[in-house]
Design a protein that fits this description.
The chain is an alpha/beta fold. The chain has 14 helices and 20 strands. Helix 4 packs across helix 5, helix 9 crosses helix 13 and helix 11 crosses helix 12.
């Protein structure tokens, strides 16, 4: 990983003729973590501690996980007495003796622990206390993930997200080490940041604690980059790569967040993630002619420059179709002149039908919106699509992902339950907003240039006391 980063940075510095000492910040958008989850590789085994017994024993951890991922991650699950009510009142005292027994059972046998307590986003005290007890009783070093730092209200989905976060600890450390090594070898002494799922940045320390928040940063960076390049704040973004196409909605310059539980690696979670539709369509997608022509889902990926017909290879790809139609310069057009015109037209129809159906699935209203095309694979698409008011293909469309992470602000959020019966709405919201701003500043934002970007209130009608779930998002420019 560090080789690729180092090579890219070296070429960039040489081309721009920039003194490395003048570079103050380096931002990385990476798919390292999501790839590890999808491939089930390099993950830590996790000891799961759920606080809330006996009430929380009905459904055990890993109950709805894919069998192969659970097998790669699960060590043992433990139930501990404790937990809180929705308004922060303590259900039971935390059973510290039980935690010390758990420490003896896992010491030296796992690298990561995931701790989840009932309603900890409202009152995290028992999770923090449990972490201190375990750390004090363990002789070997472990990484501990606390659910109130990872996800939102909803015990099982929050626990799932926390377990995934714990499983990614070693993956995150390798990514951070590679990033640091690459920049230091080039003489860069800049502050390092990672792109996160909501289109903002987090510092290295946060990335090490919460790597799960990077799993959708790839398409999010492309959406942010598309907005910047096209100077459009509300639109649909279609990002076509070598293997897949990501389609998302851009609202006020940021990707629209999903209101549904997010599926990550086949696991149901509830942390913040953009509403992105993934299609198995890219420049390297295999085209199979026949009575029913198909495009994908398999792809030659990075081998496109060796396997595509246009370069003399054996595989017919979506890029070959674009070359045959004169949409791009790649390889030698003579190599695709023998393709049947009717087959080329049918492949083009299938490709556009896939994208147009995807656009229909993500749109939030019947009103036609402009579509911004980015990504190197967007050369597959013509300059008109059904149900679209305008096609925008900005300059530098092929590097929108890198631009998106380079322009990102530092972000942080607060997701909690407030009771307006105990306090006035204005004071309660002001307190939540201050908390979100403070978190962003601690992560590296300039306090004077940090703002509250969004406030969401969801009444919890099934709970007493005028309870409301409040989500506050704060964003700020990097502190200079």
């Amino acid at each position: 990983m560090s080789t690729g980063i180092r090579t890219s940075l070296r070429e960039l510095l040489a081309t721009a003729r920039i003194d490395p000492g003048r570079v103050r910040y380096c931002m990385l958008g990476t798919t390292h973590c999501i790839n590890a989850l999808l491939e089930r590789k390099g993950l830590d085994r996790v000891a799961v501690v759920r606080i809330g017994a006996p009430a929380s024993k009905a459904i055990p951890p890993f109950a709805d996980w894919p069998a192969d991922l659970a097998s790669a991650v699960r060590f043992r699950s433990f139930f501990v007495e404790g937990g809180n009510e929705f308004d922060g009142r303590e259900m039971r005292r935390l059973a510290e003796r039980r935690l010390r027994t758990i420490a003896s059972a896992i010491d030296g046998r796992v690298r990561s622990v995931a701790i989840t307590s009932i309603f900890s986003p409202v009152t995290p005290a028992q999770e923090i206390q449990a972490s201190r007890v375990l750390q004090g009783a363990l002789r070997h070093r472990v990484s501990i993930s606390l659910s109130h730092e990872i996800a939102t209200i909803g015990l099982l989905e929050r626990e799932n997200a926390t377990i995934l976060n714990a499983a990614l600890q070693s993956v995150a450390r390798r990514a951070v080490v590679a990033f640091r090594r690459a920049t230091r070898q080039l003489g860069l002494r800049s502050a390092l940041y990672f792109g996160q799922n909501d289109g903002t940045l987090m510092d290295i320390e946060t990335a090490l604690r919460q790597p799960i928040l990077t799993v959708s940063s790839g398409p999010t960076n492309s959406i942010r980059g598309a907005s910047f390049l096209a100077r459009v704040s509300d639109s649909i973004v279609v990002d076509v790569g070598g293997t897949s196409t990501d389609i998302g909605v851009l609202k006020a310059g940021f990707p629209l967040e999903s209101s549904r539980p997010a599926m990550v690696g086949g696991v149901r979670t509830n942390f913040r993630i953009p509403d992105i539709l993934d299609l198995a369509l890219g420049g390297g997608s295999r085209v199979r002619p026949g009575r029913r022509l198909t495009v994908g889902p398999d792809s030659v990926g990075y081998r496109l420059t060796k396997e595509a017909r246009a370069v003399g290879g054996p595989t017919l790809t979506a890029t070959d179709i674009a070359v045959a139609l004169g949409r791009c310069r790649f390889g030698d057009p003579k190599n695709v002149r023998g393709l049947s015109p009717s087959m080329v037209a049918e492949a083009d129809r299938v490709i556009h039908a896939m994208v147009e159906a995807g656009i229909d699935r993500v749109r939030t209203s019947a009103k036609p919106l402009p579509v911004i095309l980015v990504g190197g694979g967007s050369i597959l698409l013509r300059d008109r699509l059904k149900g679209v008011s305008q096609i925008v293909r900005p300059d530098h469309f092929d590097v929108a992902n890198a631009i998106g992470v380079s322009i990102a602000e530092v972000g942080a959020d607060v997701d909690t339950v407030l009771s307006y019966g105990d306090d006035s709405r204005s004071r309660a919201l002001a307190r939540a907003c201050r908390g979100a701003v403070d978190r962003a500043v601690r992560a590296g934002a300039n306090r004077r240039r940090t703002r509250v970007a969004n406030i969401e209130e969801i009444p919890l009608t099934y709970l007493p006391g005028n309870a409301v779930r409040v989500r506050v998002k704060a964003c700020g420019a990097l502190a200079m």
